[in-house]
Amino acid sequence: MRKARIGVVCLCRKTFDYITAWKLFQERIEETKKDDSVEWEVFSKPVYEPLEGEEAASFLLESKVDAVVLVSATFHLGHLALIIDKRVNKPILLWGFNELPYDGGKIRLNAVCGVNLNASNLYKSGNTTYIVHVGDEIDKDFILAIKMKVAIENASIGLIGYRAQGFFNVGVDELHLFHETGTLISHYELSALFGGEAKEEDIQREKAFVLKTFDTSKVNEQQVNLLAKLIVLASDFMLKEKLDVIAIRCWPEFAKTYGISPCAMMSVLQSRGMLLACEGDVEAALSMLAVKAGGEKTPFMADLSQVNYQENYALLWHDGVAPCNLWDGKCVRGLETYFAGGRGVTADFVLKEGKMSIMRIDTALGKTRLFYAEGEAVPMKKELAGTYAKVIFDIPVDKLIDIVTYTGVAHHVIMGYTQYRKAVHYLARIKGWELIDENTKV
To answer: Which of 74, 239, 264, 425 has a 20 to 30 A CA-CA distance from 340?
Structure first.
């Protein structure tokens, strides 16, 4: 997955302290560029006049930027942002510097007024997706939102088989998805994932990893061997096909055809940063990409499975696919065979505690939405099979359930231990998607 490319332009006017403003801009952009998770394209001089705005726009176009930061270092002409917006047509952050200390004369920067001017001009010209920020450092949540946007729009997604039987709500209209995200789905049969050849030394290496990582007392040696081989086959398949994420129809045919389900394999590969979604859920797969771009190294696709209204918690659970590195370090981390007629072979552990979030890109009634909520995973005993976390959300769990069910959000969410509420708000605004969160009225 390529890095996001963000362009930066400094807007000034010589009737203000433009010399100091340009020095401040250079200092602050040098600090900004220390974030090397993004490619920075900085226009080399301040922009004062419309012709210079045209020059800056040409630079941004040639640089093929994904987003633009327009810095109001001082107040400036209103033409400049409009010219760049018209020609470049990318998400815009309007960044204004804080005012400098007074020196007994006129205002030195008046940068906030410049931001206000740009926002009003953009809004009244039809651009309602810009983001506004005032401060001495760039808005890092805008950077996260652009990284999420780029991850979504440049995704290479493989759908292995189809969605799970009866899961109509996770099916997608592929051309609507393409319109909203630019993503095209590559389709494969289940046999494409597990029908290849694996080198014996690779299988033995993965078998050693499985035996070291999991308590395997509830599975037999043949199942361990099948798991080790599947880890190799799935990893090789994704690398060969250059897929960023895959969504697998993991039941009902998989275990019957291959001999075990893919759950434990998904747990292992996801612990290594690979992305695999259950049950053919393409939008969950897309959400995993966004969550990873937002800073979560190993996201977990979970069901909002159980709720306790009296004690105000929910259980985020799934059939043993959580990345095995998310283990709480206390319970026995094992393998289970509790479903698919004993051929389940799923991971089995409680997830670690800590601040967390859930997110999902979800389409309903022809509209793409973003669902987001935050909370905290708290300690719990290992009392059932699968992988799961006990979570207390920042809002009452009954309200959360009402929001999810009355807005029709699908039953899979992406959990992680990174929180990025503001970035999700920005992403929804930039994409023109409905935001579903704690403020949603139902």
So the answer is: 239
